[in-house]
Amino acid sequence: MTVVYNLKNVVKQRVSDDGIGFRLVVPDIQISAQENIALVGHSGCGKSTLLDMLALILAPDESEQFDLHPVGGKDDNIGQLWKRSRQSHLSQIRKRHIGYVLQSGGLLPYLTVRENIELPRKLLKLPDDDSINSLSRVLGIHRQLDKLPGLLSAGERQRAAFARALSHRPSILLADEPTAALDPITAQKIMAVVMEVIRGLKITLITASHDWAHVYKMELRTLRQESEPVADGRIYESRFSDG
């Protein structure tokens, strides 16, 4: 199976003005194509930071190796692209191969649901086809396409956020605690449908969660977080490794 992400000794430090923060360390992680991965750890441990690096939004402070091999795309040494400030190249990789669902959904409030979902395809200048309608039907929001996001329920907004992230058929889907604001039953229903979609499209899923029971039910491979205090206990070193 193709290795999509290959990270070794990747480091990112975040410290507030009062000197309290964390140092995120990824010693050695490989993620293969079509794997379903969960980043598990308590709030504030660096899950979102790691997802932002995987999404090519946030550059690490250090990286011995940070390679990305998206299915259907070119192999890229991401660490070198960051060192050379190749932001345009990184942006193109992100737009074409990665879909990202935020905890808040992140839908643009002044666009209809359909326009939000179409946005990644328009940025890539992909042809109009029936993919938006068919994806919306599968996710159960086809009747909401002409509404503004503010008129949708929380569950419907997250379904729309997933539809937008999947509309351009990326090879990688990242999701940052996408159901944290939903009740357990709604969260389970949404993730069950999403898992069905990504398996059908052969997409690699990496999602962050603090809910171990939820992850266990979805049968995801887990990358668990462990932390220990350094620098007089004001900075914690947070490490992600296979759990």
Would you write up a description of this structure?
- The protein has 243 residues and is α/β, with parallel strands linked by helices.
- Helix content is 34%, strand content 30%.
- The protein has eight helices and ten strands.
- It has a ten-stranded mixed beta sheet with strand order 5-4-1-2-10-9-3-8-7-6, sandwiched between helices.
- Helix 7 links the parallel strand 7 (172-176) and strand 8 (204-209).
- Helix 4 runs parallel beside helix 6 (154-166), helix 5 runs antiparallel to helix 6 and helix 6 (154-166) runs parallel beside helix 7 (184-201).
- It is globular and about 55 Å long.
- The model has no long low-confidence stretch (mean pLDDT 87).
Descriptive tags:
243 residues, alpha/beta, Rossmann fold
Oligomer: single chain
Q: What would you call the structural class? A: alpha/beta
Briefly, what CATH class?
Answer: Alpha Beta
State the helix count.
8
Characterize this entry briefly.
The protein is of the alpha/beta class and 243 residues long.
